[in-house]
Amino acid sequence: MNYQIELRHLLYFKVLAEELHFRKAAERLYIAQPGLSRQIRQLEDYYRVRLLERNKRNVSLTEAGKYLFEEVTRLLRYLDQIEVQLQSLANGKISTLRLGFIGSAVQTILPQLLVRIKQQQPDIELSLHELGNETQLELLQRKELDLAFVRTSDVPPGLCGLPIHTEHFSLVVPKEHPILKSAKPSLEQLKHESFILFSKNYSHSYFDLVMSIFQDHQFIPKVTLRTVNALTIFNMVKQGLGVAIVPSSLKNGYHVDVAFLELDDLPQRTTLYLAWNAENRNPGIPYVLDIIATSAPWTGAS
Hints:
With 302 residues, this protein is an alpha/beta fold. 40% of the residues lie in helices and 23% in strands. It has a 5-stranded mixed beta sheet with strand order 4-3-5-12-6, with helices on both faces. Helix 1 (7-19) crosses helix 3. The protein is elongated, with a radius of gyration of 25 Å.
């Protein structure tokens, strides 16, 4: 071999692995098909493995090809991240932080945190993304998010989790519900009701925690609707389709005509966590962790 592998070889391979069709891949890359074939052969010669199985009709990845595709995808994503950070530094910024959050974080820590970051580290640029718990954890693992506010204690290996804010649960009922006239409302009064809950996909540990509330009250709820969206829950409750149990902080910020009853006598509490990837070298992460560490009131129960 009298040639060296360059970044373009890996980029060409990635596109071909996505298309599994030489002509379509060549069109995406704006190169001639013979040139693409030559680049792929050079890559196979360099690594001394067959990356593709070819016949007149199909192209498929070998096991080595599948592995290389995963690694190249990860590498190119990392190079994109480097470009973003370089642009931030060139513009006088410490870094660009991609921050994920669930809706309830907006009602608790997130607005305060954004204010403090702006006050203490104005050279950190923020990119905000409202996402579900599981999606955020997956993106953290792939280093496509830098920080995530999640409502789950099930943090995968390689990720760090810091409890930020603990709070009570609340019942959500229609404003004309009979329980509102009760001198001492209790969950047992609702055991024949239909319940609308956050789905297990929202967070496995959160779902199990909510189900433990019903277990303690010795009944299995009739769950008729599940969703990952708080506003959907509130609108369904308003329409009389059921009642719900949610983190108490969600009573703030949503202008929906429903009633909240805080369940402050329950032993169960729900906790908001900040999660990040221990291998993520974004220079803005330590600054934000330091701001949070010096803000002790955020870690107390509400």
